[in-house]
Amino acid sequence: MTSTAKTRTTILITGASSGLGAEMARQFAAMGRDLALCARRVDRLEELRAELLAAHPSIRVAVRALDVNDHRAVSRVFGELDDELGGLDRIVVNAGLGKGAVIGSGKPEANLETAQTNFVGALAQTEAAMELFRARGAGHLVLVSSMSAVRGLPKAQTAYSASKAAVSALGEGLSAELSRSPISVTTILPGYIRTPINEKVAKTPLMADTVAGVRSMVQAIEREPRRAVVPGWPWRPIDLALRVLPQRLTGRFL
């Protein structure tokens, strides 16, 4: 469901202490939105909260420490923030990891941790968000996937791309189920946007700076499409190419 008529005024963002999450918070705050911010590092959240309130004193910002792998805590914290801010109408499932190792290389911990956080943690967040939205019959769920979800990637990126493909499938299934519902579901697939998670990626002309890249995400989220590839250039053409090109060529893009 795509909706432009309703402004989402109260937004929860997970993984908000740095990277995409922190910059989304800054940009939504500049739009006058009230924010609920979650991450493991509550000290960084408090610093971000102070920054946002200094720049935009009319908004409300609530923060909570949250490890998305503590599934009971996810439900509890989402409920607490929903109560504190008088009802969340958009929840951005953003927390994630970029760890990885070659599968079978004797270093399974990084891959298992990434899969646990990126998909099982995302599923726990989605369960908690959808329980709130179904109870009130409205809301906007945003799942932050990745362009890495479009095709399976080799070597140390394999588990990461698989975890993000699972997130995309989760969003696709919910979008189909809720296509005639007042609850919207959007899956965002960012290309390369400069954040701590990809700071080790070699320099590439495909890398967008954090502010511009997140601006494309926020603009897409505001439109509430089912699926959005961002930034649009060059990632929409790459998205189409990845779906049809043979595997021997797709490695040039990711």
Automatic annotation (TrEMBL):
<dbReference type="InterPro" id="IPR036291">
    <property type="entry name" value="NAD(P)-bd_dom_sf"/>
</dbReference>
<feature type="domain" description="Ketoreductase">
    <location>
        <begin position="9"/>
        <end position="196"/>
    </location>
</feature>
<protein>
    <submittedName>
        <fullName>SDR family oxidoreductase</fullName>
    </submittedName>
</protein>
<dbReference type="Pfam" id="PF00106">
    <property type="entry name" value="adh_short"/>
</dbReference>
<comment type="similarity">
    <text>Belongs to the short-chain dehydrogenases/reductases (SDR) family.</text>
</comment>
<keyword id="KW-0560">Oxidoreductase</keyword>
<dbReference type="InterPro" id="IPR057326">
    <property type="entry name" value="KR_dom"/>
</dbReference>
<dbReference type="InterPro" id="IPR002347">
    <property type="entry name" value="SDR_fam"/>
</dbReference>
